[in-house]
Amino acid sequence: MLRQNVLALLKFSSTIFLTLCLVFVLSVQTVFAAPINGDIVNITLPDGSVVRVRVWGDEYFQHAESLDGYTLIVDKTGWIYYAQLTPDGTDLVSTGIRYRGRTRSAIRLANGQILRKGLKISRVGINRKVRSAKQLLHPGGAREADVGIAAAPQGNVLGLSLLIDFPDVQGAIFGTEMQNFLNMPGYTGFNNNGSVRDYYFAISGGRVTYTQHIFRFTAAHNKSYYTDPGQSYGSRARELVREGLNALRNTGFNFSMLSTNSNNVILAINAFYAGGVTNAWGQGIWPHQGWVGSPVWSANGVTADKYQITGVGNNITLFTTVHENGHLIMGCPDTYDYDGNSRGAGNFDLMSGGGSTNPPPPNPHCRTVLAGWGTSNVLNGLPNQTQVSVTAGNLTPYRWNGPNANEYFFIENIRRTGRWTNMPDEGLLIWHIEANGNNSNEQMTASSHYQVSVEQADGLFDLERNVNAGGANDLFHLGNRDIFNSTTSPNSNWWNGSTSGLNISNISGVGDVMTFILNTTGGPIFTPTRTPTQPVITNTPTRTSTSIFTPTRTLTPNSFTPTRTPTFSGPTSTPTRTFTPNSFTPTRTPTLTASPTSGGGSACSPVTSTITAPFSFDGGGTFCWQSSNLGSFINSWNTTSVSVNGVNVTNVWVSASSLPAKINGFWYVSYNSSVAWGHFEAQP
Prior knowledge:
5-stranded mixed sheet
């Protein structure tokens, strides 16, 4: 859970070399601890020189590259090296060539081979690294998140925030600024849209007032003691949190004032330490979520368990703190891809990404199911041809259920305003939830798929294919895609391939109120009496009650006038569901075919997306990319086949001057790889 400008490096290999993970030493340091995706950071080398590195990942796994695309690792002394894969593809080893921050046109290895760019370890290797990091951070097999144990608290919720100075380093903004950032209504410092309190009051629909008891103390040792890379990762962080808890207990503070779960475990302990991150690897007090561990710490009948710790430099923004507290007080899992092979829920969801100073709300599965902050309006059972109205800014989504209690769809109306200002698109946002899925599984198959999926209206699956974190045509509306059913792409089928029965059409244009027609088993057009009153997010949230949606109708010749009488007549609208998992043929991956066209070559089809240099893709699958600009060269590796306008360029470096002629102004790149570490790039 990394984020923003301050980073560190996490241990990557069981040998002497480590993968670059989180880094530090920036001109302006900020708080971070959430996923990052290709952020450029500055690293200070042992000789004092500074190099720039691009980093992806979170606290469990990171991948780092030079700015020109070579994979990097770092040894225990802090020197950075160009990396190559082990023969089985599960790890990285050093080439012995140091990285000095310079762009290189080619790197020749000792065996005479040219080093490939963008090398990534296999999913087997990634899973091994993630397990290792979790074992270090979660002593005793502690849970990553208390998902589904009980609904999140409501009303007044009190967390604990420890502000940690060191004898040699004091916090630059640990006075009034930090107090206001956490607790002040209407806070606007550093361009934030409210305080942490404001954010949770808003996204809970006024159900939760989440504030912090703030305790500032000075640690027992200088900062270097806690950042010692020779100590087991997380051990000194736990020691530092325990110091803060003990110091607060010595003041006579009554810990039973803090909000706890049903087991009397403190819900939220936030530790912010002074001076930003100074670990060069995933060690010491590198930002993470962890557990206090053994021996058990308790006072006044309550126990300390989960905490999140991060460094604070000269400013602070909302995203990372509210993201981490989405784990602590809501019990919500991450919805980004831990290994960086896809974008998960992208910038549509707090638990995946979004604006740093104005992050989006959590997805409705997190809000309404896991946290229990609100309900949903169930569409099942409404008459055929019901016209449904959806108001933007509502926290109560529409829901379509199936026979499996763990799988369902949510529908919301998104406008770029308020908490949704930084959303990638506007229109109807359709979520596909499968509680047993995992957002590191982008394969879109019955056995391997996301837990929280955004049904992207353009049918390009750019989130799964790691193209972007959300695009301009991802949401449904008139003029883009105004229908969603079992035969569209994307479709409304369950993950096992059976028909869900969700069939909506006539989706209106983008607006504060959008409508669609729910099609079931036939019958007249029906307009509900009223749109259910739902909590609406404003910058000054108010407590708006949630009404129960009970549509009814009264028959008048040639017309239908809704009434408030909760009775129905006419056909029963029970969706037909046929479950045939053994005959499921996935339709989410386009089949590419080469067809002759003008220009002397052939173009793949259908086109899955348009690309332009610089462009880089890693992963398995079959795609057809259209481009008018492939830069100065293309390169690929670990692929089954790659062709440009029908010309085979599989796993070779090709200069732009050697590419075949364009077809009607475009090159058509056909890509196929059966492994997650397949790679294609076009570089300027």
